[in-house]
TrEMBL record:
One of its GO terms (molecular function) is RNA binding. InterPro entries: NIP7_N, Nip7_N_euk, PUA, PUA-like_sf, PUA_sf, Ribosomal_synth_fac_NIP7, UPF0113_PUA. Keywords: Nucleus, Ribosome biogenesis, RNA-binding. Belongs to the NIP7 family. It is found in: Nucleus, Nucleolus. GO terms for biological process: ribosome assembly. Pfam families: pre-PUA_NIP7, UPF0113. GO terms for cellular component: nucleolus. Residues 95-170 form the PUA domain. Interacts with pre-ribosome complex. This is 60S ribosome subunit biogenesis protein NIP7 homolog. SUPFAM superfamilies: Pre-PUA domain (SSF88802), PUA domain-like (SSF88697). Required for proper 27S pre-rRNA processing and 60S ribosome subunit assembly.
Amino acid sequence: MRELKPEEVETVFGKLAKYIGKNVEKLIDRNDGKYVFRILKDRVYYMSQQLEKVASNIPRKQLIGSGLLIGKFTHHKKFHIKITALPLLAVFAPYRIRITPASELSFLYKNDVMKSHITHMSEGIPDNAGVVIVSADDQPVGFGVTTKSGNEALNSDPASKIVIHQADVGEFLRDQDTMF
């Protein structure tokens, strides 16, 4: 494992800021200790410094992962947030969209969120913002990117696409062989 290079830090924090905004700063200096981002085999992990010290004793070839997998760098150096980052996004995300129980299954099958699927939206969601999708009982089920601002979405046609699907908890089953 190694520290992220400055350009990697900028890429990762830029992508995370799309979903959690200014709360990116809270990821490093938390009340329960210091946390760090480390990279291993193009995958970015988020962990406490204590866990990093323990993991540093394991040879790189034998270490599969350590901490919370945030995302992965592609061959073209683009960063993709993985569904394993959902617990972190759910805690720090300022924008949430609650969907109906019937549309939850549709979302879990990689479909986008339409206006008719939405039961509640956070106030002041901007256009192209990262949002966490929650079920009717407030359990996070995935995340996506809005196509319209909150006010535009409320006044739009029921069949219009509001959130573009990025990831959902169904990926744990669909991609279990390639996830880690």
